[in-house]
Amino acid sequence: MVTQSGKPVxxxxxxxxxxxxxxxxxxxxxxxxxxYPKTTIEGIAARAGVGKQTIxxxxxxxxxxxxxAFLDLSEQAAEAAGQVPYAIPDTGxxxxxxxxxxxxxxxxxxxxxxEAPSRxxxxxxLVNEQLAREFVAKLLEPQLQLYxxxxxxxxxxxxxxxxxxxxxxxxxxxxxxxxxxxxxxxxISYEYTDTVVDYALHGLAPRS
Amino acid sequence: MVTQSGKPVxxxxxxxxxxxxxxxxxxxxxxxxxxYPKTTIEGIAARAGVGKQTIxxxxxxxxxxxxxAFLDLSEQAAEAAGQVPYAIPDTGxxxxxxxxxxxxxxxxxxxxxxEAPSRxxxxxxLVNEQLAREFVAKLLEPQLQLYxxxxxxxxxxxxxxxxxxxxxxxxxxxxxxxxxxxxxxxxISYEYTDTVVDYALHGLAPRS
Lengths: 208, 208
Known about the structure:
Two copies of one chain form a homodimer. By secondary structure, chain A is mainly alpha-helical. Chain A contains ten helices and no strands.
């Protein structure tokens, strides 16, 4: 293992990295198996094979551990899909760019490693507003802001109307996929998200 | 109390109606307070002041009780809002009709009687696919089909493009509100749902 600067990583750092990763995996596995309320710092420590104090040294609460474990999981999924983490491409073709990102999101939502812990946390967020707001602020909203940036650039290019609020507009193509996943209201596929993007950009009413 | 035919209701029917309502209220209160997994037929019966057998005579499972309790709650909310239950108006003005129904949905989502049990059930549905599918089939999908009908009539009138799939199209204005409510990703208001309807009908791209 080498750092970005090319220097070898000292043993202590390597051990820390290994512990950090074991803690993430234990936290995600436990919340998937037992649910959020029954997941504890003690349980995460036991499963990760580290002392409780190791966790408390790095994180203030189990919500913090899970938040970082999710950020890490999302970054891994994005890297596996060949994407730069947390970037929406800007090729000049807005429809194509949005479709590519939503297809990657479909892959992530259908990935079994992602699904069980995500569902357990979303379920807790439904009845625990404080947790939900923390996850929105630290995880969801930063991702949504990337769509805001891409839509603003599309407004500059004349591809999106100037009077459209990008923060609301993005929900027309992001929320349908989210609701199908959250509530099992319909199947999820590339064809589906492609269609949603086309409808959102061109509207349901005829163009005269 | 009289029946629709105008005849007085016999005492036994009146007692049954009173029990049924007590069971609905107990079921909704328990799932809101304790969550779905800890809600039992025994608990509902005790809180409603009826025998367990009364519940088993009418319903096969706690999921069935909750499903009917929710249908009843939605009908009451629609009646309180002066709507015919489960109908989307067709005044010939598609935007106005959709905005009216979504404003009523905003009221329902913000109604405290509705919010706690709905959240508890949606949370369970996230991790319990069988329950989710039952609720979608019996409760959510019939409501969404009303939008399908309204969009088909708009297609006949030339207000929605003929090549649009109504079952997907409705998600452009239904899902953003659903996601904000489910994930606390943003505030809910009439102004918000009105904006979403306008964006969905006219699209984000400029009309040339």
